[in-house]
Amino acid sequence: MSTYQIAAPGRGRTGLGRLRSLTRGRGLLVVATAVVAVAVLAALLAPLLAPYDPDAVDVTAVSQPGSAAHWLGTDDAGRDILSRLMYGARPSLLAPAVVTLTAGTVGTALAVSAAWIGGWYDRLVSAALDVVFGFPGLVLAVVAAAVFGAGLTVAVVTLSIAYLPYVARVVRSAAQRERQLPYISALRMLGMSGPRICLRHLLPNLLPLVLVQVVTSFGYTLLDIAAFSFIGLGAQPPTAEWGLMVANGSAGILAGSPEQSLYAGLVIVVFVIACNLLGSGVSQRLLGERR
Questions:
Q1: Which spans are transmembrane here (predicted)?
Q2: Which terminal Cβ of the chain has fewer Cβ within 10 Å, N or C?
Q3: DSSP 25
Q4: Angle of the 27-44 helix axis to the 81-117 helix axis, nearest 10
């Protein structure tokens, strides 16, 4: 009597082989994820990883180039640039995170409720979003700073409002299409209430789209926060923040000490590009699977 052996799924493949199969064709996405992860870890572990106190002034080491003592050099006050970049990751990443999460949460709630209720409420929400969308976020932030004073808090609140339409308009259109699908009609015929349908069925189906919008907006929000600090209306000295570091180091460029502005600007550019690549990869992965 002959016997047959059925190979178990995945048997014979090493962990390295599975990793290669997962990352094949996604090199840029892996690199972008690694850049974002390194920045987040630097922000979280700054007290353990930073070689110096970010605010420690050393008048004997002002505007020094990179050396064994200060790998990326020092700024115009003798502070270690590497340490300030690590600590600066905290406000530079936290502020955009609050903006995108707030805009994503409130924008999704407005979009789903407008698509479900319809009528005058939908028209009112759409008109309000159109009005907000007509004003650039930085312009609103500058006006708010002139009224309430400079600071990251004002920038975060204002940009959270300014980014609402970017999420709400896209999600509203998707929610309106989703509402016309047969499963929504079936759920209503079964007697399920509108809020329950939205929370348990409609919203979960929209979450991939919301996630893509939040991830994609994060890089642009970071750029806006950095620009706000660059013009002196965001983080205030001596706070270590990437946009403020670019501004503080601008005078040193002509003096032959561009390290502070150069490294801070480079970190911003690399992180924003990584966020865009990550958002594109998440979009292809999540939204592609739904098609």
A1: 28-50, 93-117, 124-146, 152-171, 206-235, 262-282
A2: N
A3: T
A4: 110
Lookup: tokens for 269: 């550019």
**Tens digit of each residue's pLDDT (9 = 90 or more) over 27-50:** 788 899 999 999 999 999 999 999
Q: What are the distances in angstroms from CA 31 to CA 28, 97, 205, 274, 287? A: 5, 21, 29, 8, 21
Residues 104-134 as b or e (16 or more Cβ within 10 Å = b):
bebbbebbbbbbbeeeeebeebbeebeebee
CA nearest to 194, candidates 275, 140, 121: 121
Q: Which two tokens stand for residue 232?
A: 């002196």
Q: At what angle do helices 152-162 and 164-179 cross, to 10 degrees?
A: 30
Compute the distance between CA of residue 93 and CA of residue 156 in angstroms, rounded to an integer.
Answer: 12
pLDDT tens per residue, range 125-167 = 999 999 888 888 878 888 888 888 888 899 999 999 999 998 9
**Residue 283 domain-assigned (yes or no):** yes
- In angstroms, the CA 146 to CA 153 distance is 13
CB proximity list for 162: less than 8 A, separation 6 or greater: 132, 135, 136, 137, 140, 141
Burial class (CB in 10 A: 0-12, 13-18, 19+), 196: exposed
Instruction: Answer whether residue 195 is part of any domain.
Output: yes
Q: Which two tokens stand for residue 222?
A: 């970071």
Distance CA 225, CA 159 (A): 8
In one-letter notation, the amino acid at residue 133 is F
Q: Report DSSP state, residue 61.
A: S
Q: Identify residue 210 by its one-letter amino acid code.
A: V
Please give the pLDDT value at position 216: 86
Helix axes 81-117, 119-133, angle to 10 degrees: 150
CATH code of residue 251:
1.10.3720.10
For the chain, which ranges sit under pLDDT 50?
1-13, 15-16, 18-19, 21-23
Is residue 92 assigned to a domain? yes
Residue 63 lies in a domain: no
Mean pLDDT of the chain: 85
